[in-house]
Structures are given as C-alpha cells and as structure tokens.
C-alpha cells in the first residue's frame, strides 16, 4: 500500500474536445459520488486547431464547471505547476512532443493513470519487398521515416516509465510492463458498463430489423486531425452501403436501421444514408437487432457479448485506400470471429445471406476474454473499479 499523500482531486488530461458523451463515459459523476473534485484539462485546441474548428459545438460538455479549454502550452504547464497539492491524473494524451512535456510535468505533481482499455483485433500493415525496395531507393525519405519510427518507439517506451496505474480490460490489453513501478487495475471494456447497468440483457427475440453500425467514414473529424483523407468518398460510399443493406434486408425480410456514430452530425449533411438514422441508441439497436452489420466498429463488442450474427463488410474504395490499413482491420476482426468479409461493391444475386448468420460461440467467448472482460474481474461500473482501487492503494477514505 502506498504512503503517497494527495488530495482527493482528479484531473483528466485530454487531447480531444470533451463531449457530453465523454462526461458520461469517463465517469465524472462516479468520481464526484466518491467525494472527489474533478477537472478536465482539454489541450485539443492547441494540438489540432483545424480539427477544433470542425467540432460540433453542440456536443461539447461546456456546461461542466471543471472543464478548462487551454489556448497555449504555457497555460497548461502553469495550471499544473500551480496545483497546491498532489492529484491523480487520468492520462489520455498522445505522444507528440507537446503532450510528452505535459505528461512529464503532471507526473511531478501526482499519480498518472493510463487507460489501456478498448483494445481491438487490429493488425499492422506488412509491407511487401517491392514497397521496401522503393523506399530504400529514396534515401532521404527513407531516413526521415526511419527516424520518425525510432522516435515514436522511444516515446512509447518513455510513456510507460511515467505510468503509476494501468487500467486494462481483456487479456490483449495487458502489455509487458515493470509491475514494480506500474500497478494493473483489472476492469473491463467501457462499453461493458451498459451490460452492468442492465444486469441481465434481454434481446428482442421477435426482431424485424438489421442494424448497420455507422462509423461516419466520409466525414469523421479524426481525418482532419491526422491530416489524411478518409478511406471513402461521400459520392460513392452511401449509395454502395444503401444498396448492400437493401440486398440483405430484402433477402432476410428485415427492415433497416442505422446506428449513428457518436461524433456524427448528419443533420448538416446533404449526402447520407437513405434509411432511418438513430443517434445515441447504438446499444439498444444492437441488443434488439436480428443481424448486425459493420466494418470494424468498437461497438461490435456488444454484438459479440449478446451473441448476435455479424456480417463484416467492405467496399472497393476501402480495399484500394492507401496502405489498406482499414481494410486489414476489417479482415482481422472478421477472421477472429470466424467470419468472411463481404465486399458491397461486388455483390451478386446469388449471394446467400443465410450462410453469413452463423455464430461460432467458442470464438465469440474467446473474443470477450481477450478484448472485453477477463473472467473473474469485478462486475461493477468501470470507474467505480478504478476509484476504489486507487483509494485503497493510496489509503484514502471513501466518503459517500
């Protein structure tokens, strides 16, 4: 048990605009119920000014008094350095130089909690011999990429030296760390909280619809943040998805519903799906659906846990995107669950959709163990697990 003395104050360090959804998912109310003071230090405006300009302001949790949106790096460092007592930091930063500076200063003023939950079966891109040869033939570009790769690896290793607590979910989220310096908090996937709240999940056995899990691919703000192009274009994507969904629905005699991505804002878009789009209802839509259709969304964890038939889909655009990373992620996800990916751009009238509804229960259960929740881990709200572990370790009395 640690003898570390600190106040009951927790500060989230975030590099994405803090939304109303984040307020709920990140357990602000949970900390408050345990008599902790909560603040959120949002540095997204400093890191990604262009990204910030494209954020839907209606979804920002601006009504939360503890939210501080910083304008420059000096403001952030000053706010941390001026803390009167040691605090707990929830580290949701990346590994840019600026974020590494913030992390280092924070570590000197308290304990750092790193979130390692939300792991998915995504693979790395294996470059072929020709690709590597082409890069080597361009020595200047090759050296820049090599230096960037080494620097990134070094930063990731350095981050581990700052972490006091690492929150994990399934077995695949547990990295190799120095357990003498970093304590593991065994929780579960954040989405599992929906299952904890329901206590016993009861699906609608008479469901008459399929649900497509939208990932807002043509418009997702992360592509602005990364300075890259989306893997699909709005001109092609929606018509192809609509056509594919219609083919499946017609064959299986089902209706179609779209579970909108949390960051989506289809009300402001001219091009979108031609089927009903539902916001903030993804869990319920999956729970009660007859079939779930997706690329490789994190929300598929709910479909796996509730034993839903899943159809993984792709398109020609996705397959032909640069490096095909997104396509590889879809295929990896499908393979682990014993599925084959369907290309909506190349459908045939001979497709038998019944054959895609099989469920490999053994693979589904293994997925839960590896990516959602290890058997025997606490079956209670995610943030309650984290708070109680830290309070116990730091000898803080819980006063509710």
Give an overview of the whole structure:
- 39% of the residues lie in helices and 14% in strands.
- It is an alpha/beta fold.
- The chain has two domains: 9-122 and 156-189 and 375-393, Rossmann fold; 195-371, Rossmann fold.
- It has a seven-stranded parallel sheet. A six-stranded parallel sheet has the order 10-9-8-11-12-13.
- β11 (291-294), α13 (300-305) and β12 form a beta-alpha-beta unit.
- α5 runs parallel beside α6.
- 33% of the residues are buried.
Question: What portion of residues belong to β-strands?
Answer: 5-15%
CATH class category of the largest domain: Alpha Beta
Do you know the CATH topology of the largest domain? Answer: Rossmann fold
Number of strands: 13
């Amino acid at each position: 048990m640690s003898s570390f003395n600190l106040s009951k104050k927790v500060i989230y360090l975030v590099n994405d605009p803090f939304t109303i959804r984040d307020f709920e998912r990140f357990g602000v109310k949970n900390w408050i119920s345990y008599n902790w003071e909560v603040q959120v230090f949002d540095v997204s405006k400093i890191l990604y000014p262009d990204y910030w300009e494209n954020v839907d302001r209606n979804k920002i949790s601006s009504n939360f008094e503890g939210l501080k949106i910083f304008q420059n790096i000096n403001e952030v460092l000053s706010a941390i350095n001026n803390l009167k007592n040691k605090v707990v930091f929830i580290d949701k930063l990346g590994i840019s130089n600026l974020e590494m500076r913030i992390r280092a200063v924070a570590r000197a003023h308290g304990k750092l909690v790193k979130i390692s939950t939300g792991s998915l079966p995504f693979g790395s891109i294996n470059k072929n011999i020709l690709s590597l040869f082409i890069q080597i033939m361009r020595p200047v570009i090759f050296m820049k990429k090599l230096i960037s790769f080494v620097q990134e690896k070094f930063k990731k290793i350095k981050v581990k030296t700052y972490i006091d607590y690492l929150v994990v979910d399934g077995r695949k989220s547990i990295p190799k760390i120095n357990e003498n310096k970093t304590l593991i908090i065994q929780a579960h996937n954040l989405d599992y909280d929906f299952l904890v709240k329901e206590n016993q999940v009861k699906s609608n056995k008479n469901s008459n619809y399929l649900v497509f899990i939208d990932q807002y691919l043509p418009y997702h703000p992360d592509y602005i943040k990364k300075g890259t192009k989306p893997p699909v274009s709005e001109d092609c994507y929606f018509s192809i998805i609509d056509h594919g969904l219609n083919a499946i629905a017609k064959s299986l005699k089902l209706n179609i519903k779209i579970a909108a991505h949390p960051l989506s804002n289809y009300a402001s878009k001219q091009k979108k799906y031609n089927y009903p789009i539902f916001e903030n209802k993804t869990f319920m839509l999956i729970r009660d659906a007859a079939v779930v259709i997706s690329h490789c969304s994190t929300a598929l964890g709910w479909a796996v846990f509730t034993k839903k038939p899943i159809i993984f889909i792709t398109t020609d655009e996705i397959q032909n995107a640069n490096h095909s990373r997104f396509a590889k992620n879809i295929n990896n996800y499908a393979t682990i669950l014993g599925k084959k990916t369907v290309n909506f751009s190349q459908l045939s009238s001979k497709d038998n959709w019944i054959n895609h509804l099989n469920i490999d229960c053994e693979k589904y259960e293994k997925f839960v163990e590896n990516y959602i929740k290890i058997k025997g881990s606490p079956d209670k709200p995610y943030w309650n697990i984290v708070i109680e572990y830290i309070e116990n370790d730091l000898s803080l009395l819980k006063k509710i």
